[in-house]
Design brief:
With 113 residues, the protein is an all-alpha fold. The protein is 94% helix and 0% strand.
Length: 113
């Protein structure tokens, strides 16, 4: 009778030792790195979301200030325009009055001559 063949048992032991080494030093290490990377991605995404919300709020405040400044500038421009038109009208009336006086004086001078 021949002795039992233990080579299959030895191959199985080598396989499980190699599996344990690969799992412990390679698969778990890579898994840890990928978990850390996923955690960093989630943290960065949350930070981006909060920063983006702050940006949107700041943008809304700035747009409101710009709109208010535009309204004030338009109102001021309208006031200045009304003032300028009033001055123009006064000057035109004064010029018309002066022209009328000169015309009357010239007509009087012509009628006397």
């Amino acid at each position: 009778m021949s002795p039992p063949n233990y080579s299959l048992l030895l191959i199985m032991i080598c396989f499980w030792v190699a599996y344990w080494l690969v799992k412990r030093y390679l698969i778990d290490a890579v898994g840890g790195v990928t978990e850390e990377r996923q955690r960093r991605i989630e943290t960065a995404d949350q930070e981006w979301s909060s920063r983006h919300e702050e940006y949107e709020q700041a943008l809304a405040r700035i747009e409101a200030r710009v709109d208010d400044a535009l309204r004030q500038a338009s109102q001021r421009r309208q006031e200045l325009r009304q003032g300028a038109l009033a001055q123009r009208q006064e000057r035109l009336e004064a010029a018309h009055a002066t022209a009328d006086k000169r015309l009357e004086a010239a007509l009087d001078e012509l009628s006397e001559a």
